[in-house]
Design a protein that fits this description.
CATH architecture of the largest domain: 3-Layer(aba) Sandwich
Low-confidence stretches: 1-25, 40-53
Number of domains: 2
Distance between the termini: 21 Å
Number of helices: 18
Mean pLDDT: 90
Order of helices and strands: HEEEHHEHHHEHEHHHHHHHHHHEEH
Length: 511
């Protein structure tokens, strides 16, 4: 696999998006973003940590589908339409005549532009399936924006109200029906694939539209982090465990650092001292700015603790080496430098409010209410999730209140083992246990066809990012891919057997 020349620019966009999302919202709205791609700046300086392919550009075509605004109502405005973007890679497809399968990547909270290059699992394995690869952009992101412009679409609650997951997966259903009809591929089986929020969409799509997809690969999908199914402190408990396993002394230094930051900040000119000590891009107005930045750095490093670099180990290595001094704050700064590298300033950088910033903020203020808090047994200062405060901030920003119970009402989640084994099938829930969001994932098999595949050392969406160009992937990750591919091939083989039994069709043999 070859590195894509635009990778660094794409990752820069993602990094700026993530930090602006985290630093510009009020405290109660800080839900760590769900994304399959690492979003911390050090990736810019170590491109080998993310593998991208762009060798299929000539085989990938961009299309637009005339999508309906509202799938669920019959008011006059429901029939308005917008152009929804999707991409198709024809390179590996065996064709409609052989009912060759279709891999459909369900876009999440960002434009679809970078997905073909960065979600390498699809191109790595499409040839062995003779599969068509489809990437569908999520409504309100990228070029799939209703009402003619992003400004108009996000103008108020009346226009942004069509921006939700149910409408999105109905969009995907309409696009897939259109593609199969256009390509005369009605008998081609579809497997939907997604990561993080997109992984949730993939699992929900399989449950809501089983007639359109024979299976789903849901990577790092925290479908149980709603409605208090998962303990609120699950996320930051895993972050703390990751750092403690990397280094006990590192963990203890971080644990002690928060009170030290508060102590220095309380002194005369304390904020100025902290600004200088941490080489901030602009002076700190309060100590929480620095603490929030560090919390986010530790959390995102744990979430995207990918090989071969393992950013948690990088941070702890910097803290334990204490290159800038043996006091607590000097050690913390050393960890920051170890991760960030030789940048001109380290904290409080320029804020860019991107479409993903605005979009994800709306999504978490409407239905994606993931109640993440910090308990008493982590390396952080306690900060419990307050739904009352959260709802107040959302109401102030958007004029509407969140619906914290809607995801479990519409898709389920409570007693999932009992419920899904009665009607669900053909979903892979893949997770890496070093990913803090795995605390809200499905980690045990529900049935023979609702399988949980996890790795002890894996991180967020690592399995769908694809193989390293130098074949240096750890054996446990290779084995995870093998298990996922085996399950997916089993789905397709069963589908063809059923097709033959029902219609007497010629059986298609995948490679």
């Amino acid at each position: 696999m070859k590195h894509h020349p635009m990778l660094s620019k794409w990752l820069l966009f993602i990094f700026l998006t993530y930090y602006s999302t985290y630093l510009t919202v009020s405290h109660s709205l800080k839900i760590p973003r769900l994304s399959p791609i690492a979003e911390w700046e050090t990736t810019l300086h170590n491109r080998a940590t993310v593998v991208a392919t762009d060798t299929d550009t000539e085989n990938r075509v961009t299309f637009y589908y005339k999508q309906v605004l509202d799938h669920f109502n019959y008011r006059p405005e429901s029939y308005k339409t917008f152009q929804q973007r999707y991409l198709i890679n024809f390179k590996y497809w065996g064709g409609a005549n052989s009912s060759a399968p279709i891999f459909a990547y369900l876009g999440a909270e960002e434009p679809i532009d970078g997905s073909p290059e960065l979600i390498g699992f699809l191109t790595d394995n499409a040839a062995s399936f003779n599969a068509l690869i489809v990437y569908i952009e999520h409504r309100y992101y990228g070029k799939s924006v209703p009402f003619g412009s992003r400004e108009e679409a996000l103008k108020n609650a009346s226009t942004i109200g069509y921006f939700n997951s149910a409408q999105a997966i109905a969009d995907y259903a309409s696009v897939l029906i259109h593609i199969k009809k256009t390509l005369h591929a009605q008998k081609s089986p579809v497997i939907v694939i997604g990561g993080s929020y997109g992984g949730m969409l993939a699992s929900w799509f399989r449950l809501k539209y089983p007639h359109l997809a024979i299976g789903a690969l849901a990577s790092s999908a925290p479908i149980l982090y709603f409605d208090n199914i998962t303990p609120q402190d699950g996320y930051y408990s895993v972050v703390s465990r990751d750092f403690r396993e990397a280094s006990e002394t590192c963990y203890q230094t971080i644990l002690k650092s928060w009170s030290e930051i508060d102590r220095v900040a309380s002194q005369p000119k304390g904020l100025s001292i902290l600004s200088q000590r941490f080489n901030t891009c602009r002076p700190l107005n309060e100590s929480s700015e620095l603490k929030d930045y560090l919390i986010n750095m530790y959390a995102s490093s744990a979430q995207y603790n990918h090989p071969p670099r393992y950013p948690v180990t990088v941070i702890c290595g910097g803290i334990d080496r204490a290159s800038f001094g043996s006091d607590i704050l000097s050690k913390i700064y050393a960890g920051l430098v170890a991760l960030r590298g030789n940048t001109t300033c380290k904290v409080n950088g320029p804020i860019i409010v991107s479409e993903t910033t605005l979009g994800w903020r709306w999504q978490t203020c409407s239905e994606m209410v993931i109640p993440i808090g910090i308990g008493n047994n982590t390396m952080f200062q306690p900060d419990p999730f307050s739904l009352k405060s959260y709802a107040k901030d959302c109401k102030k920003q958007f004029g509407v209140s969140p619906r914290p119970h809607w995801v479990t009402t519409y898709y389920g989640g409570h007693s999932i083992e009992l419920v899904l084994q009665k009607f669900g099938s053909n979903i892979i829930f893949s997770n890496g246990l070093r990913d803090p969001y795995s605390s809200g994932g499905v980690l045990k098999n529900i049935s023979d066809s609702l399988v949980a595949i996890h790795t002890v050392n894996g991180s967020h969406c690592l399995d769908i990012l694809g193989a390293n160009a130098n074949h240096s992937d750890p054996e446990w990750l290779v084995e995870q891919w093998k298990r996922e591919i085996m399950v997916m091939k089993g789905w397709i083989a069963q589908y063809y057997d059923d097709l033959v039994a029902l219609n007497g069709a010629t059986k298609f043999q995948s490679k």
